[in-house]
Design a protein that fits this description.
Elements lengths: L2 H38 L2 H15 L8 H27 L2 H8 L2 H12 L6 H18 L7 H30 L5 H27 L1 H9 L1 H24 L2 H7 L3 H11 L7 H22 L1
Helix pairs in contact: 1-3, 1-8, 1-9, 1-10, 1-12, 2-8, 2-10, 3-7, 3-8, 4-6, 4-7, 4-12, 5-6, 5-7, 5-11, 6-13, 7-8, 8-9, 8-10
Length: 297
């Protein structure tokens, strides 16, 4: 089985943990305060990863050019917006359902990757992606859906998915645009650049318009530090995955996150799982299995 599969599974598991930690922070320091935690508290861990890798591998840090920096800046901004919308969605929807809405992104990623980066997947892989995404929709779209809470969750969840997809494409583009280095060094370098840009943007914004959210994250520093570490840890593996294969492959396999999230929802948050959600998860597994089979072939 390809290495990128194991890398993506690790990233997905780490992201579920980070999302759960951020969800708890939202109630204490607000949406924007919880958003900046993954970047401000994640940056030191990202830099630590880079120092360790350069020491172990004996490689120099590649110097980014204009194209790589442009990709990193665009991806960083998109990820900030996506994270904020994700946390808004968590206020009005079940944790596992929120995660499922976010995972509607692979189809958009596949199309945009083809247009922006020239990644080609072919009709069979696009079919596998559609099957997996249909499983997500089975989980989330209720018959006779009504009520502002559900509608708002759909709008903000889909908006977050689109922005997460854009950030994935930009981060892969930025990694590929770096002039030299192994996949590990290039992916970690771009991770640090992105975290640095995101931290700077949010610090300026919060210092000017929402200082209580900024100071509040330090008041709950233990949870903030955990969310920051899990964010940097999962991003390290996401970026490495982007260096190895198309963003569409990575984001489609990442749909297994809905299964991990369901475990969190059931055993930690004590939220019920319906038969419809179980069927949807089974369809997701079928789609992901088809994608892996096609990639191996």
């Amino acid at each position: 089985m390809p290495v990128w599969v194991f890398i993506t599974l690790i990233a997905a598991a780490g992201q579920v943990g980070r999302n759960a930690a951020q969800s708890g922070l939202t109630k204490k320091i607000g949406t924007l305060g919880a958003t900046q935690v993954r970047f401000l508290f994640g940056l030191p861990f990202g830099l630590l990863f880079l120092v360790l890798l350069t020491t172990i591998l004996g490689e120099a840090v590649p110097i980014p050019g204009t194209r790589s920096l442009a990709f990193a800046l665009t991806g960083a901004a998109a990820q900030i917006g996506a994270t904020a919308l994700m946390l808004v969605t968590m206020k009005s929807a079940n944790f596992a359902v929120t995660t499922a809405w976010l995972k509607t992104e692979p189809v958009l990623v596949a199309l945009a990757s083809f247009l922006v980066l020239g990644d080609t997947l072919g009709w069979p892989m696009l079919g596998a992606i559609l099957i997996a995404v249909s499983g997500v929709l089975i989980m989330t779209v209720k018959p006779g859906l009504s009520g502002w809470g559900d509608s708002r969750a759909a709008i903000t969840g889909l908006g977050a998915a689109a922005l997460f997809g854009a950030s994935a494409i930009c981060f892969r583009g930025g990694i590929l645009a770096l002039p030299e280095g192994s996949q590990m060094i290039r992916s970690t370098t771009l991770l640090c650049i992105s975290l640095g840009l995101q931290t700077a943007m949010l610090l300026v914004w919060l210092a000017a318009f929402n200082r209580p959210a900024l100071t509040g994250s330090f008041a709950v520093w233990r949870t903030s530090l955990l969310a920051g570490f899990l964010g940097a840890f999962s991003s390290q593996f996401w970026f490495l995955g982007f260096a190895m294969t198309s963003a569409a492959n990575i984001r489609t396999l990442a749909l297994v996150e809905v299964i991990f999230a369901q475990g969190v929802s059931t055993f930690w948050l004590h939220q019920k799982t319906s038969n419809r959600q179980l069927v949807g998860m089974a369809v997701v597994v079928v789609g992901v299995a088809a994608l892996l089979r096609l990639d191996a072939g």
